[in-house]
Amino acid sequence: MLEQFFPDLILNEISEIDAAALWQKGYRLLIFDIDNTLVAYHEKDATQKASRIIRQFQKIGFQTALVSNNNRERVERFNQELKLYSVSRAMKPFQWGMRKVMRHFQMTPQETVLCGDQILTDIFGGNRLGLYTILVTPIEINESGFFRMKRRIEAYILKKMKERD
Fold this sequence. Notes:
This protein has six helices and six strands, in the order βαβαβαβαβαβα.
């Protein structure tokens, strides 16, 4: 039962994603969470590092998009420079935001990668849809009590995942 929460790949940060290997395996769409995946939660705009990495994926040929549970204003502000297709208030782990992106780009789950920092929203939602999921270490650890509780649950899930390996 816990397998539905297990990511396909765990990395420290998005710069470690081997885009060429994903491309060779047939993936064509990369969907990113924003907060604590691309930038720290308090960062209002895309950083140069995040922008550079996304542009590198695009040079290879990937379609790239943002799916965030945050509000429209936050997502639009972050996306001003990047100008990516985006979905705000996605309510992950529900699937409608990810499905909307795949419909926009006419991609299947077998062609789509979801990258995020949270198991209970990003990874669980992506896995339920059959996407290839990448969990990255959260950029910022200073989170509210609610997030600290979620992180404890995620630590338990990761422990169980390692025990099965």
